[in-house]
């Protein structure tokens, strides 16, 4: 049983609520602005909004569940009979993390065959990464936490390898107006995704209110960067490439 | 503990509900009418709607929290165990105030580099202004309230300086059909934003029902002016500039 201060209880709940509103707002931005890009990039920008939409939904659920799991009595935070269901984070990641790598592949407009092979390899790696990390998160046995955390790092390193070695050549062949941004998108993915295992391993062995707060705020900030921040870069790539296409077709 | 009359309790709750509905309606207006402006201004008008969307969400939360925090018993208002979470105001401001200055910069269509440098400077100043004011709001120690209020005025004055001295030249170079409105948008920002510290400093030292009512109604009115009123001016600028663009391209 975790003991939370009133301040920690409110801060975590607020962060869920704040993140849900940011994700929903970003969804509207991406979906409305699909009209700004040429047909070739519309699916990509729509998927960018799908990622933030699913995140908005799950953060809303996290907020509701958090609010139901605790009650204030005599100036302190008590657990109710409704357990907090942090599993909504995994429901979110399971759907959105494969889509994030697919976004990056789609916006590059590689040959169809390469898009499919690279996209499916990266999506499978992403699913394995989330799936292997999950047993470690729900376990309270320390060595389980380390074991599944370590197992989950396997697919993560595979993803890093795919993005740098596998995609390196394809990125250097991107049109000049997009090359820098595609490289930034790739680096952002690796850098922000690296933040998740840091939060995960940092958290092992700590159960107090401060650990719970850092764990939840850490993942929430990482989710905003990985989905909204990354999504804006993908959107900018799509806009630039669309402008270049319109110029070259004389439209 | 604040003692509220039934009248004050209902009035504040009603103002949250009213404001949520106005913000949601404004969101629909801005998002639907993105199709009225040329591609160059669509992101700007979308962001205008994002600001009111996030505000609608947080006013909805304020209303829910207000309603849960009090109960009527024997003809008077009693606090429940659920504390009122006025912090949703800060969640709103933290997300929307930087976006408001970015709206103004985007609608001016400055060169890309200047857009980025001025936009990021103003956004950072806005975040500092909100962040420094927050500890003063949650503290009940009078000198803390004055101190953080005063600290928060630093970034506010920096914003005023940026908008008048920094942007003065760029505003005078706006196309004639937009120049007057851009100037009005700038003046509205400074004037309405000045209203927030007035409410803040006025409020210090008062804890009764009337003070709580003025504080909440003051911020609510200011939020409607700063987001919906300001947003309509931004939208009008985007429409006028779009019309001028269409005329000059002979479309």
What does this protein look like?
Two copies of one chain form a homodimer. The first copy, chain A, is mainly alpha-helical. Chain A has a single domain (6-248), classed as Up-down Bundle (Rhopdopsin 7-helix transmembrane proteins), CATH 1.20.1070. In chain A, 82% of the residues lie in helices and 3% in strands. The first copy, chain A, has seven helices and two strands, in the order ααββααααα. In chain A, helix 1 runs parallel beside helix 7, helix 2 runs antiparallel to helix 7 and helix 4 runs antiparallel to helix 5 (142-172). The longest helix of chain A has 40 residues, at 209-248. Chain A is globular. Chain A binds chain B through residues 6, 10, 14, 17-18, 20-22, 24-25, 28-29, 32-33, 35-36, 71-73, and chain B through 31, 34-35, 39, 42-43, 46-47, 49-50, 53-54, 57-58, 61, 81-83, 85, 87-88, 91, 94-95.
List the topology elements:
The structure is a homodimer of 251-residue chains.
Chain A: H1 6-32, H2 39-69, E1 70-73, E2 76-79, H3 88-108, H4 112-138, H5 142-172, H6 176-203, H7 209-248
Antiparallel strand pairs in A: 1-2
């Amino acid at each position: 049983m975790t003991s939370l201060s009133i301040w920690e209880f409110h801060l975590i709940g607020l962060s869920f609520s704040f993140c849900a509103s940011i994700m929903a707002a970003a969804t509207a931005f991406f979906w409305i602005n699909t009209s700004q890009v040429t047909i070739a990039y519309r699916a990509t920008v729509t998927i960018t909004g799908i990622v933030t939409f699913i995140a908005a939904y799950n953060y809303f659920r996290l907020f509701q569940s958090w609010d139901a799991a605790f009650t204030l009595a005599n100036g302190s935070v008590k657990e109710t009979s409704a357990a907090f269901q942090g599993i909504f984070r995994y429901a979110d990641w399971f759907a959105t993390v494969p889509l994030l790598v697919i976004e990056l592949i789609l916006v590059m407009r590689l040959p169809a065959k390469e898009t499919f092979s690279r996209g499916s390899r990266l999506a499978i790696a992403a699913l394995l990464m989330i799936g292997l990390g999950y047993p470690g998160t729900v376990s309270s046995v320390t060595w389980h936490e380390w074991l599944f955390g370590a197992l989950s790092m396997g697919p993560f390193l595979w993803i890093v390898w795919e993005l740098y070695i596998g995609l390196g050549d394809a990125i250097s062949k991107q049109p000049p107006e997009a090359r820098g941004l595609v490289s930034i998108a790739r680096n952002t993915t690796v850098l922000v995704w690296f933040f998740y295992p840091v939060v995960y391993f940092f958290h092992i062995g700590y159960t107090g209110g401060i650990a719970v707060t850092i764990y939840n705020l850490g993942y929430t900030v990482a989710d905003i960067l990985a989905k909204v921040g990354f999504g804006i870069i993908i959107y900018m790539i799509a806009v630039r490439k669309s402008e270049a296409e319109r110029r070259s077709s004389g439209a």
